Write the structure tokens for this entry.
Amino acid sequence: MNPNKPTLGKFLQTARENKGLTLRGVETATGVSNAYISQLEHGKILKPSPTILGKLCDLYESSYPYVMGLAGYPTMQDENNSSMASSRIGPVTNDEENALLEYLEFLRAKKTKGRK
């Protein structure tokens, strides 16, 4: 397991917060109960259905294949052993991908601070 790769719950929580949504707001938008979303975010549910993940990815504007991989489902990325970023910017090393992810987290945190 990659120690730099977020857990499914942490990824979903961060994605929700980056959209400025509450658990109840996500429930209203997706029809998935806020209690279920909370359990996902806190790691009590590790492998939700692909349908629920699809609803959340649509709302959060997140990569469905990436989130499916976080949930433990097989993905094309697993088969090709390629990184998440390579589909858009070409092949990258693990170090480059980690640096890109760190920078993305920085940008998102900066954007969130700007809203307050």
